[in-house]
Amino acid sequence: MRLGIDLDGVVADFNKGWIDRYNAEFGSELKPESVTMWDGMEQLTHFPDIPAFWKWAEDFGNGSLFRHLETYPAAVPALERLTAQHEIVIITTKPDWAVSDTLAWIADHELPTREVHVVEWSTPKWSVLCDVYLDDAPRNIEGITVNRPDKVMCRFVRPWNEPVAGARDVHDWAEFEALVAEIGS
After folding, report:
1. What angle do CA 4, 9, 15 make, to 5 degrees?
2. Which pLDDT score, from 0 to 100, does residue 29 have?
3. Please, are residues 53 and 41 in contact by the beta-carbon 8 Å criterion?
4. Residue 97's closest CA among 135, 128, 55?
5. What is the torsional sign of CA 172, 175, 180, 181?
6. CA of 119: how far to CAs of 7, 92, 132, 153, in Å?
7. 169 strand-pairing partners
8. Cα(148)–Cα(127) distance, rounded to whole angstroms?
């Protein structure tokens, strides 16, 4: 099967990445668990709006924020196991300035994939055909569920997303692997 896998919030720990940098740069004491809403950065930081946050995230000295994220501990090993029987298709939404950093990050972390789609905000992820999707973004979960009802949409449960009718909830990588095995059998 083709497994459409999101990066930020699923494979890459986006919130820990920006929060660690923000704390170091501005003397703050934010914690990743402080993030409980999608695009909640302006509520947690001094930035007046989301565009100001993204302007800051664009330059982290040696590439953008997206170049310096850590992976969630179980993510890469799970992808390696899944690639033995399935195609891993990375589908991530990024601004233009983060495309090369994202591709370099994928290479640095040796994600087992031959197919990467870095889409713009205006491009729906469901435009990339997969059998199973895994995402944490509310708009992607809803969009894929509505526009690909014959496919399996898995919501990676996070504090910033809510259940969506038709989506299957997974809480960790082991649960996702078990679901894929169940679907594939």
Report:
1. 160
2. 95
3. yes
4. 55
5. positive
6. 12, 6, 18, 18
7. 155
8. 9
Residue 84 and residue 140 share a domain: yes
Same domain (yes/no): 55, 81 = no
- Torsion angles phi and psi, residue 176, rounded to 5: -65, -45
pTM, entire model: 0.95
Instruction: Kindly state whether residues 47 and 101 are assigned to the same domain.
Output: no
Question: Which residues form the domain of 31?
Answer: 15-67
User: Are 59 and 140 found together in one domain?
Assistant: no
29, 96: one domain: no
Same domain? For 141 and 170 the reply is: yes
Helices (H) and strands (E) in the chain, counts: 7, 6
Same domain membership, residue 98 and residue 9:
yes
Q: What is the pLDDT of residue 101?
A: 94
- Count structural domains, the chain: 2
Closest CA to 1 of 175, 140, 133, 178: 133
Q: Give me the phi and psi of 8, to 5 degrees please.
A: -70, 125
Residue-level pLDDT, tens digit, the chain, 185 residues:
999 999 999 999 999 999 999 999 999 999 999 998 888 888 899 999 999 999 999 988 778 899 999 999 999 999 999 999 999 999 999 999 999 999 999 999 999 999 999 999 889 999 999 999 999 999 999 999 999 999 999 999 999 999 999 999 999 999 999 999 999 87
